[in-house]
Amino acid sequence: MKKVVIIGGGFTGSKVAKSLENEFDVTLIDTKNYFEFTPSVLSAITDPTSIDNIQLMHLHYLKKAKLIVGKVEKISEKEVFVDKRKIAFDYLVISSGSKYSFPFKEHDALMTNRANRLRAHYSDLQNSKNILIIGGGLSGVELAGEIVTKYKDKIITVVHAMDRLIERQPLKASRYVQKFLEKNRVKIIFNEMIKGSKRIGNDEEFFTDKGTRIKSELAFLCVGITPNSEFMKKSFPKLIDGKGYISTDEFLNLKGFKNIFVGGDVTDIKEEKTARVSLEHAEIIKKNLINLEKNKPLERYKHKERAMLLSLGNHKGILTYKKFVMKGFIPRMIKKHVQNKEMRWLKK
Ligand SMILES: Cc1cc2nc3c(=O)[nH]c(=O)nc-3n(C[C@H](O)[C@H](O)[C@H](O)COP(=O)(O)OP(=O)(O)OC[C@H]3O[C@@H](n4cnc5c(N)ncnc54)[C@H](O)[C@@H]3O)c2cc1C
């Protein structure tokens, strides 16, 4: 059996590993020993009992594939270097995703750390009255929605550098979200950026580029993702761009390498980085690995406009598709259904 090594057990990596473990000798290398359904991590911050529903140990859904918990430091055309070990491959899948500040994503080696830290964050949240959310994109808005619908006594401020929330979505969606948050007592500051903070007693006072001061005991940074591609720097420095995204061709191959595939957040494909897209990359990578073995032509990945789901607490949400916007209870239920479906598929 040919050896397939996969770097990263997020949406792309776990799907490729599970789909191919009967056809290939698969090794999944991940910095953590579990899969996490990141889109629902925001509800875990306000309700730690849901952590068990969004995390699943890799060895619970992989029957044959091997798991290495560790951080890949370097790769070559034939090998992966992890914790002083060299792992040879016939095919490599790079699906190392992206970093986001804690508590949204992190790369701990132990599952208990992450779950404990999420629980600790829950208690910080309970003990804080003034909460600052930096960034009014999808994560910032969802987090504000989660907190206001679960706690009635918090004073929440969202600082957003643009003139409307979730500005890549249709105007109608931005307006709905703004109305929902303001109705729930969230203060939104547009067109300003947080520049720094200083400690005053137990509180932190943040200040913006326009001089606005905001006191808060707890702040969440909800801006910007950084691709996890440090291991490319030594051997393939020309195949990462200035931001760290990896050069990927239309077959999801690493440019110039037929035996190496790239999928998920870490690719340099110009599209919204989402779990949905990562799963579609996984599907193409799976098919192309099988095609390569059967000497069949490779399938092209085509970027498609996709629906986007955003939740505002447990009962409201938005679905957008191109200019279409659906608001209210149904989008929230669809988002829950998507999570359950994905976790069920893995557990099967
Ligand atoms: C707060 C938040 C909310 C979101 N909400 C939504 C949503 O509602 N809908 C949606 O579609 N998308 C959402 N997303 C985006 C979605 O989570 C990502 O697009 C998706 O997780 C990307 O999947 P991936 O497989 O590329 O990588 P990831 O899920 O990031 O997984 C990568 C894995 O690789 C591991 N890794 C990294 N470096 C190394 C290394 N050197 N060696 C070994 N392992 C490594 C990491 O630990 C991780 O396990 C959200 C993201 C965040 C942060």
Can you walk through the features of this model?
The chain is an alpha/beta fold. It is built from nine helices and 23 strands. It is 30% helix and 29% strand. It has two domains: 3-31 and 70-100 and 225-303, FAD/NAD(P)-binding domain, CATH 3.50.50.60; 111-223 and 308-338, FAD/NAD(P)-binding domain (3-Layer(bba) Sandwich). A six-stranded mixed beta sheet has the order 5-2-1-9-20-19, covered by helices on one side. The structure holds flavin-adenine dinucleotide. Residues 7-13, 29-32, 38-39, 41-42, 71-72, 95-98, 100, 104-105, 107, 139, 228, 231, 264-266, 273-276, 278, 309 line the site of flavin-adenine dinucleotide.
Brief descriptors of the model:
9 helices; 30% helix; FAD/NAD(P)-binding domain; single chain; six-stranded mixed β-sheet; 348 residues; 2 domains
User: How far apart are the termini?
Assistant: 24 Å
Shape: globular
**Beta-strand segment tally:** 23
| Multimer state | single chain
| Mean of residue pLDDT values | 92
Strand order of the largest sheet: 5-2-1-9-20-19
Q: Strand percentage, roughly?
A: 25-35%
**Parts with pLDDT < 50 across at least 5 consecutive residues:** none
Please summarize the sheet with the most strands. 6 strands, mixed
Number of helices: 9
- Helicity level, as a percent range? 25-40%
| Broad CATH class of the largest domain | Alpha Beta
The CATH superfamily of the largest domain turns out to be FAD/NAD(P)-binding domain
Q: By helix and strand content, what is the structural category?
A: alpha/beta
CATH topology of the largest domain: FAD/NAD(P)-binding domain
Rg of Cα set: 21 Å
How many separate domains? Answer: 2
Judging by the overall fold, what is the CATH architecture of the largest domain?
A: 3-Layer(bba) Sandwich
Catalogue the ligands: flavin-adenine dinucleotide
